[in-house]
Amino acid sequence: MMPRGREARSVLASLKRPHTLRSVSPALACLRANPFHTTATSRTDGVFQGLADKRQPLPWIEAFKRQQEGKPAHNSDDVPTERDLTPRKMSDSYHRVVLPLKKDPWLSDTYVNSSGHIRLGTLFMDLDALSGIIVYKHTGPGVTTVTAALDRITIAHPLTEICDLEYSGQVTYASGRSSVEITCKVAKAREEGEPSKPEDVLLTCTFTMVALDPNTRKPVNIPKLEPTNAEEEKIFKAGEAKSLSKKETSKASLLQTEPNDAESALIHQIWLRQLAYHDPNNPLRQPPNVVAMSKTQLSTAAIMQPQYRNRHQTMIFGGFHLKQTFELAFCCAASFAHARPTFISADPCTFRNPVPVGSVLYLTATVAYTDPPLLEEDGTEPGFPDEKNPMTRVHVRVDSKVRDVEHGVAKPTGQFNYTFSVPKDLKVLPHTYEEYMMYVDARRRVSLGDSQRKEEQKASSDKRPEASEKNLIG
Prior knowledge:
Protein name: Chromosome 2, complete genome
Largest sheet: 10 strands, antiparallel
CATH superfamily of the largest domain: Hotdog Thioesterase
Region (Disordered): 66-87, 445-474
Distance between the termini: 49 Å
Keywords: Hydrolase, Repeat, Transit peptide
GO molecular function: fatty acyl-CoA hydrolase activity
Family: Belongs to the acyl coenzyme A hydrolase family.
Number of helices: 11
């Protein structure tokens, strides 16, 4: 048998020789039909091509050369111009893309995990890319836009089979200042001409984007959104109320104020229980299903490569950042529960500082709260609606920070919050003051999510997914 190296040289040499009209092996025919010097299509790693085509105007090596020469590396569309602040309609920013997972099984390799579930982290990347397209339709050229926050992602209906998916979204609130709210949804894609149904919607999410001057990086005003009918007016008012609510919530943050009376009572009750577990004169001992918060942590560190950059070339794409935090949160919940978690919601997440290309991103995930909790404010132990089939909600917080390769000063880049359910009875136990604050903050987020879910159920008669339902999302 001919050695592999000689065989390869023989094949390459035969390509250079003239050939008579004799039979040609399939391997040679394939080599001739597919020359080695191919050009890869421009894309951001992991983002659906239908959303990535216009996101990167320059190959990284060219953008890098421009940086070295002191020239701007961003897109010409981002060069400051006199901005058109004419009010926009919701329809002006509407965008729709179909993800053909059923029609193209090879595409599903990027979106389906080893257990046959849709990879939510990959969907989050696509949704952030979609929001980037939508915001540029609203603002027009001359501004740089960045993702400031993910307000909430909820599962509306479970996915029971792999099918083509439709991404769609539009601007739903813009006051004329620098920020804009974008609402996106993922739904089952219907055949052309076939009407969609409410139960087709798999999940909805809301992003907050901020417009900046490309040179000064300071916020700039953008066109105001003007509703054109009663339905749009209702959506606009809801966005306005949400914006005001976020400001009030920010004022009540634990970084601004101390815990309220009920929260202080809860902290004291948990502290007393913690003391009892370690008191040799007390028969009460820490049960095996009660886990110290510090033992739930998982951490990662990764260099941010150019293929994950955003359309402004020098910073990492927010969707990739979101995907990394979600997948670490999933692993953290799975490690804590020793069971497969089911995604419930992404609670308000913030992007505090950009992540530069070439920097080192550090992520730390912690189980910050479990529901039912260890104790209530009065010291009682809450039970499960069905004691034979316990189902615990696990709230995972992911803290993100970035350093340059030389590991100088660290900058916080965001806090991300995810809630999962697991089919077990588990409790998390804080010990330090910092952990108690994380516990109280997570408890607030879960309570707020419950309130919003009840409002959504009142507004819609559609059935919401239960944790026990078959669901291929997650």
